[in-house]
Amino acid sequence: MKNIIKSNINGKKILLLFILTNIIYAIMLTITIPKVMSFTGGMKLLDMMPTGYNSEYVNSLLSALGSTGRNAYLFNQIPLDMVYPFLFGVTYCLLLAYILNKLGKSESFLFYLCFIPLLSGLFDYFENIGIIAMLNSYPDNSIILSKTTNVFSVLKSFFTSIYFIILTISLIGLVIKLNFQKRKLNK
């Protein structure tokens, strides 16, 4: 896996993936999520609750959505959200690998931090599968399914947050390194 990542550290490829990933994300944020939320009466979608939810909230949300809203969730939001976790995982894995390579840290233990967005994407898929199951089984959702899906939602959010903290620190490190090199050349 490490060799696959290293062989794909290419600025143009990463930029293209970054643009594609964020176009998909923007479509979800501006079109599909608002469309589904228009049926909720102001309730947040499960995907958008980083600190989690309980089975009562799930049932209230699915009830508020109604049949049309549940279909919009299942057939408008979920299809894009089945593409996004893959793009997120790959793009942000490669972006961090690129930055670590520029920092000269691609052979250190820090390289394994590149797997964090892949974990986030994996938990996003598990979350989506749980949401699909709940949408399809409504009104007969099990508490276990709601709790399990909630765990996946929280883990997705946890790993995503950790990743962006690491990315920010890495970018700061890169800026410092580049400024140091620039000063050294100007002397």
What does this structure look like?
The structure is a single chain. The protein has 187 residues and is an all-alpha fold. The chain has one domain (2-186). It is 79% helix and 0% strand. The protein is built from five helices and no strands. It has helices at 2-7, 11-37, 55-102, 116-137, 143-186. The radius of gyration is 19 Å and the shape is elongated.
What characteristics describe this protein?
187 residues; elongated; mainly alpha
Draw up the topology in text.
Elements lengths: L1 H6 L3 H27 L17 H48 L13 H22 L5 H44 L1
Helix pairs in contact: 2-3, 3-4, 3-5, 4-5
Give a quick rundown of the structure.
Helix content is 79%, strand content 0%. The protein has 187 residues and is mainly α.
Global outline: elongated
Pairing-aware structural class of the strands and helices? Answer: mainly alpha
Strand count, sense and barrel status of the largest sheet are: none
Q: Measured on Cα atoms, how large is the radius of gyration?
A: 19 Å
